Amino acid sequence: MTDKDDHVGKPMGVGRRQFLKVAGLTTGGVLAAPAILKLTSVASAADRTNITFASAKFFGKRTVAEMVDVFNQSQSRILVRYDELPPPSSSTEVHQGLVQRLAKKDGSPDVFTQDVVWIAEFAGAGWALPLDEYVSADEAGAYFPGVLAACKWQGKLTALPWYVDSGMLYYRKDLVSKAPETWDELVAAATDLMKAGKAKIGFSWQAKQAEVLICDLVEFVTSNGGSILGDDGKTVHIADDAAIEAVQFMYDTIEKYKISPPDVRSWDEEPSRTPFTGGDVAFLRNWSYVYSICQDKAASSVVDKVGVVPLPHFANGKSAACLGGYQYGVNASTKNRDASVEFLKWLSSPETQLLFATELGLAPSRPAVFDSAELGKAQPFMQTLKPVFVGATARPVTPKYSQVSLALQSAVSKAVTNGNVADALKDAKAKLEGIVGA
Amino acid sequence: MTTLPSAGLTAGNRRSKRLTQRSRAERWAPLLFLLPAVLTLITVSVYPVLDGMRLSLRNTMLSTQEDDFVGLANYVRLTGDPQFWSAWQHTMLFTAASTLLETVIGMAMALVLYETFKGRGWVRAAMLVPWAIPTVVTSKMFGWLFDGQHGVVNWLLRQAGLIDGYVNWYGDSQTALLTIIIADVWKTTSFMALLLLAGLQTVPHSLVEAARIDGAGSWQCFWSIRLPLLFTTLLIAGMFRALDAFRIFDLVYVLTGGGPADSTEVLSTLSYKVLFSGLDFGYGSALSAAMFITEAIIALGFGLFIVRRMRRDNG
């Protein structure tokens, strides 16, 4: 660096051509320096097995990159390089990034993280390594059954659970004494609060033509005893009575009961959250991340006024929460299978899950970690969510999930906008049968 | 080209050989200089287009690893796909409306900026600011401006007594596309104005002066002199704008994601979803090919007009 300063200081004394030559060389050297430095540090670790880990970007008190460093320092056989993808809020871009990497089939990244809805797709494409021979039945039994089930494709375990999230109902403790258990109760409570002028918006949810609409759809439909696809992943139930009734209710919250503003049709997670933490909303359907924002004095006017319960259900159904969260997978064409599996198991171990929970706020997928005293001390709220997570419902499981989701987004958006629910769902059924039908 | 093969030649022969080699070199040199450009074009433009066409005849699906030749099946499916046709209509509507509005308003802006007034340089520079802002930022900005709950547009319109209740601009299938057109017009009109301003400056001032002396008013000067002479520029600028508007992606992607109820789904966002979310590369390529064909037709239409116009102007 000092070299460069010398030359730059006296360009006039040197010939122009010579100056350019020297300047060019120095700049080149400076630019190459980091690469050279990196090379030497890699060289000193040449005896370690190098693998790459591609993950969506998460951060809390610490980041995923720092977690990878914890692993790298904990042993001296494997060196993990972290390949950062966009945050999970840009789910489409994370998906695209992973597809581009995995479709090359060159073994990179060795280990990756995936949204729960891509597991079947990546397994169907042959990109995810089946993990049954590395995970014993005992080990598998230590996870939430719902999450573990979502990690399987055609009976084979092709992913290992990382963290769990699901939809839940936020309500204003200061406005209602008891959280509603059925949708009817929610409508009644919301209507009263709006009439009394205590809340501008009764119920905030997400109807933007996007993935989140399908999450909300799964919750409404399942809580009426319906489903989108059958267990075989091939029969389509979206136009059954239970589903039609549930989607009709989604429309009615806006147009009949008027407890949700028409704006929900363009709201995804954040736009639906802001009026709630602003104090205008009585009930909100959202993910677990909202709670810490509610308790943040700088961003919220409802600190200590918010309660969280499982979502309501229809009279003849049970509460259902859409299962979210990211899970781990190993690239089927990895060239370092043993090292990858070792890193995978470390990632999904109770200790690491606890670390992710306390440092990044990601809820563990192991009930044992959930019940641990350490978690209760660091994340008391997270511990109270266990009942919500236990019953989480997976979205339709099929390798063509993305296509199914796009078709549903279009149809359900039409249904909640125009109100022709039965027609829209009948069209959706025909379309889905074309996609997943046997 | 600096090293010429010369082994095994006699001295006399070498001289004439060198001459023919030189003339050959002169003949090949231009082609050689063109080679990098041609190769670049082939790799980044011709090959992808042809490969896209090839893919559109297959059922390539990454998630199931299917990859067979299916002939025109994807195109048959396309013609019967209501989602494609509605996206096609939205795209055409958006292209026509935004190009037309941008041309008319851009023309007015260009006429104002052509006149001399104090601070004209500043205004000309400031006019380009909307065009220089990244579209994603524009989208977010219009998201806030047109917000259904707290948007300043709603507030202003209500203060002015033009609306009774707040309009849910991009959350209502009646107004969502309109909102996107407004955002695009705000952003790109200045670019149009700049092109037309350049065109205006080529109109000989003497013609306008002569007309003024003959007693023509400002409107007559514009309508009978400037506009006819500006027509070719207008067509070229319009073609640029139309082809660009046809590929609209970022405004829609950020502001509405194609919703509500598919009311803002355009061809670019639809093919992006089919290709990169659905991983349906066969059908997605057919969609892109349909886009390509429509764009080619638009370009051809404008092109014919422009050529005819130019012939008439020159002849």
Summarize the structure.
The complex is a heterodimer of chains A (438) and B (315). With 438 residues, chain A is an alpha/beta fold.
List strands and helices in order, with pairings.
The complex is a heterodimer of chains A (438) and B (315).
Chain A: H1 2-9, H2 16-44, E1 49-55, H3 64-74, E2 78-84, H4 91-103, E3 111-115, H5 119-124, H6 137-140, H7 145-150, E4 152-153, E5 156-157, E6 160-161, E7 165-166, E8 168-172, H8 183-195, E9 201-204, H9 211-222, H10 241-255, H11 269-277, E10 281-286, H12 290-294, E11 306-309, E12 321-324, E13 326-330, H13 337-347, H14 350-360, H15 367-370, H16 373-378, H17 380-384, H18 386-390, E14 392-393, H19 401-418, H20 421-436
Parallel strand pairs in A: 1-2, 1-3, 9-10, 12-14
Antiparallel strand pairs in A: 3-13, 4-5, 6-13, 7-12, 8-10, 8-11
Helix pairs in contact in A: 1-2, 9-10, 9-19, 10-19, 19-20
Chain B: H1 11-55, H2 73-79, H3 82-114, H4 120-127, H5 129-132, H6 135-145, H7 152-159, H8 176-200, H9 205-213, H10 218-246, H11 250-255, H12 267-277, H13 281-314
Helix pairs in contact in B: 1-13, 2-13, 3-8, 3-10, 8-10, 9-10, 10-13, 12-13
List its salient traits.
heterodimer, A: 438 residues, alpha/beta, D-Maltodextrin-Binding Protein, domain 2, 4-stranded mixed beta sheet, globular, disordered N terminus, B: 315 residues, mainly alpha, MetI-like fold, 73% helix, ABC transporter permease (chain B), cell membrane (chain B), MetI-like (chain B)
Describe this structure in words.
Chain A: InterPro entries: SBP, TAT_signal. Chain A: This is Sugar ABC transporter. The complex is a heterodimer of chains A (438) and B (315). Chain A is an alpha/beta fold. Chain A contains 20 helices and 14 strands. Chain A has two domains: 49-163 and 326-392, D-Maltodextrin-Binding Protein, domain 2, CATH 3.40.190.10; 165-323 and 400-436, Periplasmic binding protein-like II (D-Maltodextrin-Binding Protein, domain 2), CATH 3.40.190. Chain A has helices at residues 2-9, 16-44, 64-74, 91-103, 119-124, 137-140, 145-150, 183-195, 211-222, 241-255, 269-277, 290-294, 337-347, 350-360, 367-370, 373-378, 380-384, 386-390, 401-418, 421-436; strands at 49-55, 78-84, 111-115, 152-153, 156-157, 160-161, 165-166, 168-172, 201-204, 281-286, 306-309, 321-324, 326-330, 392-393. In chain A, the strands form four sheets. In chain A, strands 2-1-3-13-6 form a five-stranded mixed sheet. In chain A, strands 9-10-8-11 form a four-stranded mixed sheet, with helices on both faces. The longest helix of chain A has 29 residues, at 16-44. In chain A, 48% of the residues are buried. Chain B has one domain (73-314): MetI-like (MetI-like fold), CATH 1.10.3720. Chain B has 13 helices and no strands. The two termini of chain B are 46 Å apart. The interface between A and B is medium-sized, with 34 and 29 residues.
